[in-house]
## 1
Amino acid sequence: MGHDHTHTHGITATGRHRKRLIAVLAITLTVVLVQVVGAALSGSLALLADAGHMLSDAAGVTIALLAAWIAGRPASDQRTYGYQRAEVLAALANALILIVISVVIFTEAIRRIGATPEVHTDIMLFAAILGGVANLVSLLILHGAHQDSLNVRGAYLEVLGDLLGSVAVIAAALIIMFTGFQAADTIASVLIALMILPRAWSLLRDVVDVLLEATPKGVEVQMIREHILSVDGVVDVHDIHIWTITSGVPVFSAHVVVEDGVLNARGADQVLDKLTACLGSHFDTEHCTFQLEPASHSEHESHQHA
């Protein structure tokens, strides 16, 4: 006997923050244009690296917005969860873009070792400060929303990395300006590449967890089991599965063994109401499916999970 609580096939976590992402995209593209021109005029690899990173941010935000639109399409008989998993695929693309950008920056920095061109620090410093201010504004726009969605989190982490990158470029410009140490530009570009990789790996790991349908972070299966067993009439629980369709959409299913006398219309309804209320209030899981089984049927069950 299955029981489905509230279905949340609608707007996704990313979709709820679409306006924030659009604002960040507009800011980012503007700064990319300024930094590319600044890099061309100043000869700064670090500034070009920062522009490249911000361009990857813009690409990631664009992908996230497209994914949010796709994910909002209704479910069908062929895709019973709709297109919500598209957001996760977009986050995967975002992580891969970050990795490619970091490798390209690092390769160019290695090529420049021993042959560092002269850098015009005034243009470099102006463009870097502008980028830093823009990144700070974007962080404030995304703050809070990054906890709801993998895609918004990806954008938030990228902007945070951009802010650190802008700080590195500013520091390099000041070092060159006051000491004439031109290699500071190349060193800053390497630091930017190294800052990108850990964030890309973190995002990629979270995406893989969703695709492998791992138990969501912070969810303890044993605690859920104890709550279910505390419901009157419940004898045992097995085949517990907890996974995530996309950010903010956890799903739970389990086979619940109950006393034989409970399986009448009134008794079953009461048990199901208590179970769904428990999962919804204690574990923030609204989409719950329970298969109720009489205790006398347990010997026929083939347990596939804990």
## 2
Amino acid sequence: MKITVDGVKRFYTIENREFAAVDNVSLEIPDNCIFGIIGKSGVGKSTLVRLISLLEKPNEGKILFGDERVDNLSGRTLIEKRRRIGMIFQNFNLFFSRNAFANVAYPLELEKMSRDKINSRVSELLNLVGLSERAKSPISALSGGQRQRVAIARALANNPDILFCDEATSALDPQTTHSILRLIRQIRQEMNLTVVMVTHQMEVVRDACDFVAVLDEGRVVEQGRVSDVFSSPKSKVTRELLSHIDLTEREAEENGGGDADRESPLPMVKRDGTYILYFAGDQTEQPLLCRAAKQFDVDFNIRGGGIQHLVEKDVGMLVVDIIGDKGEVNKTVQFLKDKGVGVESTVEERESNGI
């Protein structure tokens, strides 16, 4: 289901002062995709999701599911709409007094579904998340990843149109995180769901999402396809988030095994070079710097970089000095831009910041 967020604001009054947690946010979340909302702690991510998931009402703006406005619903109509929404949380929110099967059955019991139908539906969902053999296990006997799988199964019990994941992998180790993200992508494809993932981890966006919106101080500072944002970040916040991205278990295996927790080359990328170059897709396989050095009277000093493997395609980043006459450097920069490479001058940014 497509979700439209149009000029939404949510503010609170603290000590007689108005504080905008979400400030004039507009988003278009396509149908049947995984949409990431990312930002640092305290920028309004969870508040925005509470608004979109109808747990709170905005002070201004409107929210539409498909062509239907939903932010102004109330009473029984609101309850029915909320039942078409699934939620997954960081801390699982499971009942420790119930086993795995009974946790998944809980929303179906609230619907007063027959026992036979409940048994059939719960068995189907536990099989989907890979926990058929742990149906009778108490929650205390399950690992963090297994608990999250139970939470996912419960969120899917009522066949939702939209699935919200609020920091759903933050409490998990890297290997388990990757398996949960893989499961969510599988579920999205099989059930034709729209999935909205809130996270502060760029690794989650990279490994699971099709689209992303970057939040800062309650506002969207950048949004688009993940491959476009990774290959040509426009905002300072996005570039900072990208500079700390880590290697996942999947990429460690692709690079010959080793420690899944080791860092990727990207955290080595510091803003000490004079240019940052962004590559995407086939560009990551082309010797463009060699061609430029042969064509123009310049030298390249590579200070750091790396390649990230996204759902859609690979993207790469290099921090370099381009050394030579100013005219030759300008020609080199234009050559790279003509080849589709994103080129950002860090000198200009430092000068604009008074550094």
